[in-house]
Amino acid sequence: MLDDGVVARTVHAARLLEMAFFDEGQWTISIGNSVVPAERSMGEDSVLIRADFPAQCWLFTPDRMAELRLNGETRDVRPIALPDKDVEFSVQWTFSVADPHVMSLRNSS
Question: How far apart are CA 18 and CA 64, in angstroms?
């Protein structure tokens, strides 16, 4: 049986893929109070949005969540592991394309 949560996550992922592919607005990724510009890269069957964070102390960052933003609006959130040392690191979202399988049935009469 198809689960409502699975359908909602699939629709959300499809909408994010559409935005990542078509929207040339300002993409950023934020962690706590740090907001970093992100770059979009188009692959053969995927879109990558990546931000490079500078070295800083993340020890006191209460939320270990990254936010993907488009023109300042949060579009997706996910937990991340922050480095325990002052080192540069990257956060990325990758959206890949798969051909959707949709069947349509018609009455033969």
Answer: 27
